[in-house]
Amino acid sequence: MTGDYPAAAQNLEQAQRIFRDLGEWGGEATGLNETGTLHRVTGDLARAEACHQQALDLARAIASPWDEAHALAGLGRCAIAAGRTAGAEESLQQAHEIFRRIGAAEAIDIADQLDALTSAAGDQHQRAEPDSPDRDHPDSRVPPNGHLADQLVPKGEDGCL
Questions:
Q1: Domains in the chain and their CATH numbers?
Q2: What is the pLDDT of residues 126-145, one digit of tens each?
């Protein structure tokens, strides 16, 4: 990997067009998920979520559980990066169930992310005082030693870029 994200984005968009032109919808869904990951790692969460949602819709339309699970995992990771832990947990749970059902190795990584998410959420509730007015403030969800996303989304281990 060279770190040339603009070139990678162009290549992924070109691949998506080719897959679409060939009627290879699974390839297009994979390309959308990879593009979503690219946008997430470069900080463009809105575009990342749009790509993963588009991949999810396509995967469901073509009945591709593998692509569906990857899209849900991508949406979960975007939610983590945005600090929306409840949405992250829901998406990751769905992804885990699909990966587990189809026997995909990715189920293990998603289970680890769910465990980390649950652990981080539990730590936050233990640190907050029961009557604290800031208990549900978005910043209270970030662990004291860094960003929640840094702890929950393994760098370079998500099977994408």
A1: 5-152 (1.25.40.10)
A2: 444 444 333 333 333 333 33
